[in-house]
Amino acid sequence: MASQRLDEDGICALARQYAQKLRKGDMVFLIGELGSGKTVFAKSLLHSLGVEGDIPSPSYSLIQTYDLPGMPFPVWHCDFFRLDDPSELRELGLGEGLDQAALVIEWPQIALPELLKEDIHWKQGRHCYTVQLEFDPEPGWRLVAISDRMELEQK
User: Fold this and answer.
1) Concatenated DSSP letters for 77-98?
2) Of 12, 74, 92, 124, which has fewest CB within 10 angstroms of its CB?
3) Confidence (pTM)
């Protein structure tokens, strides 16, 4: 994965580009340290799809769903940072989301054991975009790399 050096506006523009690619069953994995820009990317993507107003972080609810006018499927914004046990995702309906929605997932590596049980990377027509955000030595900038396939390591 080649990295781009982007500021917040650049991250938002990149998210808008990927919003146009999303299809039912697709996932966007957002990976990076706290404060690296994962939520900025997610919120920009959701605004681009038509979510209006403030977009709350799903840090405590874990999953926030959006039924958007003009879209034939919902979008789920997930944040698994506070997930204690990946098996809890079944109770939250993750399997349903994988089949019926597009998922934007912050901290997906925490949920990887459960995601792999769902055999997500072998379903025909599904895309899994991995967005890696890292701090740049210069404040206000990030190194951002995107791959069109799952690139996660179980932690």
Assistant:
1) EEE-TT-S-TTHHHHTTHHHHH
2) 124
3) 0.88
